[in-house]
Design a protein that fits this description.
By secondary structure, the chain is α+β, with helices and mostly antiparallel strands. Helices cover about 20% and strands about 30% of the residues. It has seven helices and 14 strands. The protein has helices at about 15-25, 30-35, 110-120, 150-160, 235-245, 265-275, 305-315, and strands spanning about 1-10, 40-45, 45, 60-65, 80-85, 90-95, 140-150, 165-175, 180-190, 195-200, 205-220, 220-230, 280-290, 295-300. The longest helix has 13 residues, at about 305-315.
C-alpha cells in the first residue's frame, strides 16, 4: 500500500535528508536513501541527494510502498579501513575473509552491508543486490577496492573496468621459482567444464586473459611476485599461476593448499598447511576520477598474515633478491 510523505522540518532540524526520512517513517537509513535517490522524496518540490542538509521549514514530500522495506539490504555496523572518500566514490582496504556483497549463504556481514551503514546513499547505486560495486575481490583476497557513491560514478567506473582502463597490481606468494625475473602469461579463460565453480586457462577457449609478473624475492620453495592485470577475469591470477605450475600458497581451490604437503622443511610445511587463505593481496589501484578525469592511485600495504608468512620464509628459507 502506498504511503504519502508530507513532513516539515522543525525549528530544531539540522540533519541529513536520509536521516530525517528514516527517523520519521521508521525506515532503515539505506531504504530512505534509496527512495531519495529514486526521486520519490522531494524537498520543496525538488530532488536532492540523501546527504542534503535540511533547514527549518523545508517541506519534505513524496510516496513509498510499505512492503518495499523487506527487500532492502540491511546496514551492518562494521569497522572499515577507508583509504579515500569523496562525494563520488570511496576506496576501502578489504580485509581477507570478508565477502564483497550478499549472496547465497553469506549473511549480512559483507562489505556492502558495512558500507551501507556508513554511506547509505550507496543503496540506490547500481545493482540493488550489490549496490555501488564496480569490481570485486574474492572472499579470501585482501586489498584495495573502489565503490561508487553516485549513479554517474558507477557508470563511469564500470565502463573503465570493462575497458581495462585502470591499473591493478597484486602481491602474491606462490610455490616454486619463476623461469625468469619478469614475464607475461597470456591465455584464454573459461569455466572449467568439469567443475563450473572453477575457471581454467588450459582449454584454449573463452575470453582473453593477460597477467604480467615480476619476481620481488625468492626462497628455496616459494617466490614473492608483483602482478599487474591487463585484463580482469574471474580468479585470473590464481588460475594463471596454478596452471603454470606455481599455485598461490594457501589457495584452497587451485592447488595451493593441496601442495603444502610437498614442502621439504618440516616447520615450514606445518606453517603453510595452517594458512587460512591464499596469499594474494590487491596492493595498488589506479583509476581516473569519474567527475574530473584526474588520474588517482591508491595503495594498501599487505596484511599481517602475509607479512608473517614472509617473515617465516626469511627465517627458514634461503632468501635471495632478484
Amino acid at each position: 500500500m502506498e504511503e504519502k510523505i508530507d513532513l516539515v522540518a522543525g525549528r530544531d532540524t539540522a540533519s541529513r535528508l536520509d536521516v530525517f526520512v528514516s527517523q520519521h517513517l521508521s525506515l532503515s537509513r539505506s531504504h530512505a536513501a534509496r527512495l531519495i535517490g529514486q526521486g520519490r522524496v522531494l524537498v520543496d518540490g525538488a530532488r536532492k541527494r540523501p546527504s542534503f542538509r535540511l533547514k527549518p521549514g523545508m517541506h519534505v514530500s513524496g510516496a513509498w510502498e510499505e512492503e518495499e522495506e523487506a527487500g532492502v539490504l540491511p546496514a551492518t555496523e562494521t569497522a572499515l579501513d577507508i583509504v579515500h572518500e569523496d562525494p563520488w566514490f570511496v576506496v576501502v582496504n578489504k580485509p581477507p575473509g570478508m565477502v564483497v556483497h550478499p549472496g547465497a549463504g553469506t549473511g549480512t556481514d559483507t562489505l556492502v552491508n558495512a558500507l551501507l551503514a556508513r554511506y547509505p546513499e550507496i543503496g540506490t547505486v547500481g545493482d540493488p543486490g550489490r549496490p555501488g560495486i564496480v569490481h570485486r575481490l574474492d572472499k579470501l583476497t585482501s586489498g584495495v577496492m573502489v565503490v561508487a557513491r553516485t549513479g554517474q560514478a558507477h557508470a563511469a567506473l564500470s565502463a573503465a573496468f570493462k575497458a581495462h582502463a585502470h591499473r591493478r597490481e597484486y602481491l602474491a606468494v606462490c610455490y616454486g621459482r619463476m623461469p625468469k625475473k619478469t614475464g607475461t602469461i597470456e591465455t584464454f579463460m573459461q569455466r572449467n567444464p568439469k567443475d563450473r565453480t572453477r575457471m581454467t586457462s588450459r582449454s584454449g577457449q573463452g575470453r582473453r586473459a593477460v597477467t604480467h609478473w615480476e619476481v620481488l624475492a625468492e626462497w628455496q620453495e616459494f617466490s614473492l611476485l608483483r602482478l599487474r592485470l591487463e585484463t580482469g577475469r574471474t580468479h585470473q591470477i590464481r588460475v594463471h599461476l596454478s596452471d603454470a605450475g606455481h599455485p598461490v600458497a594457501g589457495d584452497p581451490v587451485y592447488g595451493g593448499r593441496r601442495r603444502a604437503g610437498s614442502v621439504a622443511d618440516t616447520r615450514l610445511r606445518m606453517y603453510v598447511k595452517g594458512l587460512g587463505r591464499q596469499m594474494l593481496h590487491a596492493a595498488t589501484l589506479g583509476i581516473r576520477h569519474p567527475d574530473t578525469g584526474e588520474y588517482m592511485e591508491f595503495t594498501c600495504d599487505m596484511p599481517d598474515d602475509m607479512k608473517a608468512f614472509l617473515a617465516v620464509l626469511d627465517e627458514i628459507g634461503d632468501v635471495s633478491s632478484p
